[in-house]
Design goal:
Blueprint (H helix, E strand, L loop, with lengths): L11 E7 L5 E5 L1 H6 L2 H8 L8 H6 L8 H14 L2 H9 L7 H5 L4 H9 L7 H18 L12 H11 L4 H23 L3
Antiparallel strand pairs: 1-2
Length: 195
């Protein structure tokens, strides 16, 4: 559970929020993050990248971070420096849009909020069938799910994204998916870090 204890010692703000894992967390300063133990850093920052706490774990030794932007850059650099199997595992850790996990209620709290924000929790049966069709076609072509920042796109833009990106090469799609993941992570960090 992502709850920062010793809030006064961690120099957190008094504003309660939900972290990427969906658990209540006090927004904390970058200085407080820099002082967290490895275990607490992983609890707080680990969920920023969907089911991929290894990124926070490999980034923790790079402290101190001068700003939220510096932390985000360091996390992204960790991903970019990783090998291709790890990059693909990160992309594959993301759920399909309006897919089986969403219907089963097994999305992470952050993904559920993000997909709902994009209108994916209010699809007509025809729209749901279209998302299923695109999800299948995309996975068959690339071997991983279609990743797009749902907080920055509504369902119409996501559907248009499927059509456009299905024409990409696998290398282009890996690059595009990672860029979208970096945007998702940046927004999740913004939810956690007090400015």
């Amino acid at each position: 559970m992502v709850i920062l204890t010793q809030t006064r010692q961690l120099n957190t703000t008094d504003q309660a929020d939900e972290g990427p894992g969906g658990n209540p967390v006090k927004r904390c300063s970058v200085a407080a993050l820099n002082e967290l133990s490895r275990e607490n850093f992983l609890r707080v920052i680990g969920p920023v990248f969907e089911h991929s706490p290894w990124i926070a774990e490999l980034t923790w030794p790079k402290r101190p971070f001068a700003s939220a932007g510096a932390l985000h850059r360091a996390l992204c650099e960790t991903v970019l420096a990783s090998d291709q199997p790890r990059k693909l595992a990160l992309i594959r850790a993301h759920p399909d849009l309006a897919g089986r996990a969403a219907r089963a209620g097994t999305l992470t709290p952050a993904s559920a909020r993000e997909q709902a924000g994009g209108g994916l929790d209010q699809l007509s049966p025809q729209e749901a069938a279209l998302f299923d069709q695109y999800n299948r076609a995309y996975r068959e072509r690339f071997g991983f799910p279609f990743v797009i920042c749902a907080r920055r796109n509504k369902k119409e833009a996501m559907l248009a994204g499927f059509e456009r990106r299905l024409k990409h090469s696998p290398a282009q799609e890996i690059e595009t998916a990672l860029a979208e993941i970096f945007t998702i992570a940046e927004l999740r960090l913004h939810d956690l870090i007090a400015s």
